[in-house]
Specification:
- It is a single chain.
- It is built from ten helices and ten strands.
- The longest helix has 14 residues.
- The protein has a six-stranded mixed sheet with strand order 1-2-10-7-8-9. It has a four-stranded parallel sheet with strand order 5-4-3-6.
- Helices cover about 35% and strands about 20% of the residues.
- The chain is an alpha/beta fold.
- α1 packs across α6 and α6 crosses α8.
- The two termini are about 20 Å apart.
- It has two domains: about 150 residues, Rossmann fold, CATH 3.40.50.1100; about 90 residues, Rossmann fold (3-Layer(aba) Sandwich), CATH 3.40.50.1100.
Length: about 280
């Protein structure tokens, strides 16, 4: 793992763990002959499900938020090339995608399907993400991750050894509801909830996929994917600067995809471009 180099960290050390949380979420969700799931036009979850379908030989249907726009953007073009059938819901209906009437209409249209939620966060996904802490190869005190739907944080928390804690950084404005989602997902997966995690709500920079000059300047120094990863790393550095992360704390930051950012002298650069949006 690489170590983040930033003077504002002081003696706090931050190790970057490139980890495909989308694959972890899908690990225990696969096995059906036909899978239907939801996502936006640039959804990493849509791409992951499409790729899994191609690799493992099951049919995939992607229900995309909004109207079809041709030519397809690279994300949807990739999903289509993997064999995913793309269908579209207007934004008003998409907001109701979890309601029984909408689900019933989709089942009537597509027949027998396994339906995965947007972002892939369900009880099976939590169990997959709970395996992440066991793969951390350095001593640590805290594991941090970006939060979009809560599944990754729920799983990491459940998989932590005693004495460790997790911090999630919400990527969207108004993310207080995510605390309830993390607890709900843990209870669905394990019948209990953990109290070894917390959720930071102050690093959304205006909302999902929004940015500010401060975040832009941070990404100029540390060129990472900015929808999720940059907000998390900015938050970690700020918590260290403010002393909320105590001096000497060892942090593992979960990064989806391969980052390409400055490392502590003596570390090896990755040679990869910025990670894709999650």
């Amino acid at each position: 793992m690489e170590e983040l180099a930033d003077p504002a960290l002081g003696s706090v050390r931050v190790f970057l763990k490139a980890d495909d949380n989308k694959a972890r979420k899908l690990r225990y969700n696969l096995g059906a002959a036909r899978v239907l799931t939801f996502g936006g036009a640039y959804s990493g979850h849509i791409r992951a499900v499409a790729a899994a379908g191609l690799r493992h030989g099951f049919e995939t249907i992607g229900v995309i938020r909004g109207e079809e726009c041709l030519p397809l953007n690279p994300s949807l073009a990739y999903a289509a090339a993997c064999g995913m059938r793309l269908v579209y819901l207007d934004r008003a209906t998409y907001r109701r995608k979890h309601e029984p009437e909408v689900i019933a209409a989709l089942r009537e249209r597509f027949g027998e399907v396994t339906i995965l939620p947007e972002g892939g966060s369900n009880a099976a996904a939590v169990r997959g993400c709970a395996e992440l802490p066991a793969d951390i190869a350095v001593p640590y005190d805290v594991v941090c991750c970006p939060v979009g739907t809560g599944g990754t944080l729920a799983g990491i928390s459940a998989g932590l050894p005693p004495g460790r804690r997790a911090i999630g950084f919400a990527a969207l404005k108004g993310g207080a509801f995510l605390a309830g989602e993390v607890t709900r997902l843990q209870r669905e997966a394990y019948g209990r909830a953990w109290h070894n995690w917390s959720l930071e709500l102050g690093y959304h920079f205006g909302g999902y996929a929004r940015t500010t000059p401060a975040l832009d300047a941070f990404v100029a120094r540390h060129p990472v994917e900015r929808v999720y990863v940059a907000k998390m790393l900015y938050g970690i550095v700020d918590l260290a600067r403010r002393g909320i992360l105590a001096p000497g704390t060892r942090v593992v930051a979960v990064v989806t995809g391969q980052p390409s950012i400055p490392v502590v002298p003596g570390g090896a650069p990755t040679g990869f471009d910025s990670a894709e949006p999650r």
